[in-house]
Design goal:
Strand order of the largest sheet: 1-8-2-3-7-4-6-5-9-10
Structural class: alpha/beta
Number of domains: 2
Helix content: 25-40%
Number of helices: 13
CATH superfamily of the largest domain: DHBP synthase
CATH architecture of the largest domain: Alpha-Beta Complex
Shape: globular
CATH topology of the largest domain: DHBP synthase
Strand content: 15-25%
CATH class of the largest domain: Alpha Beta
Radius of gyration: 22 Å
Low-confidence stretches: 17-21, 295-299
Distance between the termini: 33 Å
């Protein structure tokens, strides 16, 4: 896999001393974007950054190239992909049924972390949609991604089919290093990784079904239900509904019960439950987790690797560590990560923590329960899916 480095402009100020509108105007970025667009036009795969997570892209109208996405990810063929376009003009081609609702949402929230589900046009291959007559489309709000899409439009279809750039069902990547570690071994030498910093949002796009007059929220994400409903109400549209049986009706990206999951079990507990667990001599057996110790704990080489994800506002956390004068050997080797209690800041670091723990071979992850409020809806969705894998 070829690594294409994008560098921020060497001089971030214009001739008048004002900050430049673009942070990615250097020659290295132009060269990298050009190489990525060329690779797409030749049928190769390109991992690229968006404002949400890194995606694994292929020419969205090239069935053979799309097939390589499924192969590299180990993704089931019936699981649909999302198409990405540089602008609304490029996105309009994927459907002939753009309702006032869909156009209004696109004009208001694109570029941005919003995927719209529409009835597909004949242009869109069934390989993209998992055999369905619907298609997901969005315009990303990340400059390098949009420049790549514009360059690809000049020499190819301009539509890039891209799920997250990780093995299917695993933790989404928010750094180029995550892509290299998780997906690098499954890509060809001619495939590319477009490297342009960390993803600022850290969670996937919100998916809204716009095929009918009543919009349906199929996946919460980087654009909140609150912002969407405020716009819908102000413009005379029905508020978002959440279908109770979406799996039977429509397949969309990231909708499986177990998804976004680290390699080891993840549990969501209160602070008190976590404290009691790490200080108990029979913690694993008491919580039905004895199988994590594949041999007798006394014969185990080293202690069990435990990842703890706590909320910053709930300090102190010294109580999570057993006193050094304890007579028994430590049962756990703990890696403690503390994230801010604001959902936006938490989301930016959440996948980073999970990917780091995958790399360290952590055997159990305990996550302190975040607030159950509307602002945390997307994070709770990812936590529940990550915790479904046991």
């Amino acid at each position: 896999m070829r690594e294409l480095d994008c560098g921020p402009a060497l001089d971030p100020f214009d001739a008048h001393g004002r900050p430049k509108l673009s942070a990615w105007t250097g020659s290295s970025t132009a060269s990298a974007v050009s190489e990525a667009a060329k690779a797409l036009s030749q049928g190769f795969l390109v991992a690229f950054p968006t404002e949400t997570v890194y995606g694994l892209g292929a020419d969205g109208l090239n069935a053979a190239a799309i097939g390589r996405i499924f192969q590299a990810k180990g993704r089931p063929k019936g699981h649909p992909l999302i198409l990405h376009a540089a602008d609304l003009q490029g996105a309009l081609r994927v459907s002939t049924q753009w309702s006032p609702l869909a156009l209004g949402l696109a004009n208001t929230f694109w570029p941005g972390p919003l995927t719209l589900i529409l009835k597909k046009s004949d242009l869109v291959p069934l390989e993209v949609t998992g055999g369905q007559d619907s298609v997901g489309i969005r315009v990303p709000d990340q400059e390098v991604a949009r420049r790549m899409l514009l360059a690809f439009a000049a020499q190819g279809s301009g539509l890039v089919a891209a799920p997250s750039a990780n093995r299917f069902g695993g933790v989404s990547p928010t750094r180029a290093s995550d892509v290299l570690t998780g997906l690098g071994p499954f890509l060809q030498a001619e495939d590319c990784l477009l490297k342009a910093g960390d993803c600022p949002l850290g969670l996937e796009s919100t998916i809204v079904d716009c095929r009918d007059s009543v919009p349906r929220l199929l996946r919460p994400g980087g654009l909140s239900r609150e912002r969407l409903n405020a716009w819908l109400k102000a413009n005379g549209f029905s508020l978002l509904q959440t279908p109770s049986t979406q799996g039977e009706e429509l397949r969309v990206s990231g909708s499986l019960d177990s998804h976004y999951a680290p390699r080891c079990p993840l549990l969501i507990w209160t602070r008190a439950q976590i404290e009691a667990f790490v200080r108990s001599e029979n913690a694993l057996a008491d919580h039905g987790l004895a199988a994590l110790a594949s041999v007798n704990v006394l014969n185990r080489v080293g202690s069990l690797k435990l990842g703890l994800l706590l909320l910053e506002a709930r300090a102190p956390w010294a109580s999570f560590f057993v006193s050094s004068d304890s007579a028994r050997p430590p049962m756990f080797s703990m890696d403690l990560q503390v994230l801010a209690p604001e959902p936006e800041a938490y989301a930016r670091q959440f996948y980073r923590c999970l990917n780091d723990w995958d790399g360290k071979g952590v055997e159990l992850i305990l996550v302190e329960r975040p607030p159950q409020t509307a602002a945390w809806e997307a994070i709770w969705d990812r936590l529940r899916r990550a915790a479904s894998k046991r």
